[in-house]
Amino acid sequence: MSGHSKWSTIKRKKGAVDAKRGQAFTKVAREIIMAAKAGGGDSATNSRLRFAILKAKSVNMPSDNVKRAIERAVGGADESQIEELTYEAYLYGGVAMIIECMTDNKNRTLPEIKSILTKAGCTLAEKGAVSYLFHKRGLFIFNKEYSEDQVMEIALRHDVEDILANDDGTIEVVVSVDHYEKLKEDFDTNKMVYGSAEITMLPVSTVPIDDLEIAKKIMGLIDKLENHDDVQNVFQNADISDEILEGLEE
Q: Nearest 5°: phi and psi at 232?
């Protein structure tokens, strides 16, 4: 249960930057709208909406904003006419990527995403060519103030899939989507403060990246995609070594 993180090296590095992005509320509002549109406006019976509301709380979105987003979706307002699109791509060195989008104009989104990839020297892949390399899971990341035993005491009450103590002192807990809410509730009840908690796409396997220039290209591409208004999430399976990450920070 210890070693180098398989999932979140890049995620932790980018966390401080992501928190400053001005599009955060807009992107979360879209998730709420799509969830309410698909399963109704009652979070008690709509698990997707519950997850979207949890995400809204994680970015400190005011409850009034959440309520308005749900009302727009249920009321059939123009803003609720949003489509979900998923693109798959091949990156440098065999790295795979999934790009999740929400847009009101797919004829605009596709060429713009394709242009970003092409300029970066990457290519779109056929549907299904990359997605099998990832699976949807709940992921909790605890910072250094907790020991592995403290996290395990609660996590092992649930059907967790993996507990990973990383070399940098962080601890990750991976759990199925079905058990995510109960585990989160247990951590919250016991006042265990996690650095992040989310439903995400985790790679089944990773591609080691030990070249600084390739790492720079991957990070630059992720930044450009995440700064696109229609992009909700970007997932990739690069495992950039700590030494390379330190070089990126210089």
A: -95, -50
Residues carrying CATH 3.30.70.980, the chain? 6-19+133-203, 83-132+206-240
pLDDT tens-place string over residues 187-240: 999 999 998 888 999 999 899 988 889 988 999 999 999 999 999 999 999 988
In whole angstroms, give the CA distance from residue 5 to residue 183: 21
Phi, psi of 132 (to 5 degrees): -65, -15
Q: Which helix (H) or strand (E) holds 199?
A: strand 196-203
With beta carbons less than 8 A apart as the criterion, state whether 233 and 199 touch: no
Quote the CATH superfamily of domain 83-132+206-240.
YebC, transcriptional regulation domain (3.30.70.980)
Give me 212's structure tokens: 């600084």
d(CA 93, CA 208): 9
Give the number of C-alpha atoms closer than 13 A to the C-alpha of residue 120, restricted to the C-beta side.
Answer: 26
Report the CATH fold assignment for 24-80: Arc Repressor Mutant, subunit A (1.10.10)
